[in-house]
Amino acid sequence: MKMILRWFPNGDDTVTLEQIKQIPGVSGVAVMLSHIPCGEVWSPEEINKVKAEVNAAGLEMEVVESVNIHEDIKQGLPSRDALIQNYIETMKNLADAGVKCICYNFMPVLDWYRSDLYMPLPDGSNCMAYNHDFAKTLTYEKMTKAMMDGSNDFSLPGWEPERFGKMAKDIEFYQNVTQDEYFENIKYFLDAIMPYAEEYGIDFGVHPDDPPYPMFNLPKVVNNAEAIRRYLSLNPSKHNGLTLCTGSLGANPNNDVPSMAKEFASMGRVPFVHLRNVLHTGEGEFHESAHLSSCGSLDMFKIIEALHDAGFDGYIRPDHGRMIWGETGRPGYGLYDRALGATYINGLWEAVTKLKS
Hints:
alpha/beta
């Protein structure tokens, strides 16, 4: 198991590599080149520039999250073949730079959503939260009307209003796409890239829907064990894997996260784990909590034990943390609470390892 942290290069992060290096047990970072438009090739120069910065801080850059998939690929448009070729070229450039794992998602239009990015908690910290009843009020019709009349009665926290125009058109497209048709588009992509994943030695881990609840009548992709089995069956390559995000899957109390961890890690199909806790506060309602089991609704010890027993040897990172001790920055990605989470996870892993030896 390798403990890493997510880090946003090119001045997009308030947390520094020097600070990450000081967290015990953290060996590297997962990066993303967000300034390169989706669908374009990540050049060796851009990749190696970030790698040199990471290595200079004494850290590894073996994980990328994520090389986003262009909406034309998801929609199965004729332009997808050229975009997939760009994706494959990016894969080669990343492999040449020593990248061994790509975390990505195939969620249509929206790759994440929260109804509140700064919900205050009783201890004085704040966190991201989700309320499905509120999310259901954000309809496609309401988004379109807000765009047309210039009103401010539509808001997706964390999403820029100028993106709503393209989002509305994409959402409209999917109103006539069935779940089966969407999975055919996923299979087309996987069948195209997996031979190169095997050639380049790159593991792919699809990220679950975040959260696992429906919005805008969009197809759901990875939100429970059955959906994960279907996704992994689309292409038999061992490089076609899952990023086990305990917070995304655990947001639905019907998901047995330890069981899922054991099942899919035992198959050798979990190259990457995002570990965080969530507290269920009502039906379709949760907020992100401190990583400790006692702070949320997930048993973190059982999840770590399941991964250990399944022979997991991939990458793991503490996922979204609260904002604590007056820290400000990108929601979920402050330094302090994630550092506490990394230390807690390392402690659980050490405990399980010694108990099982």
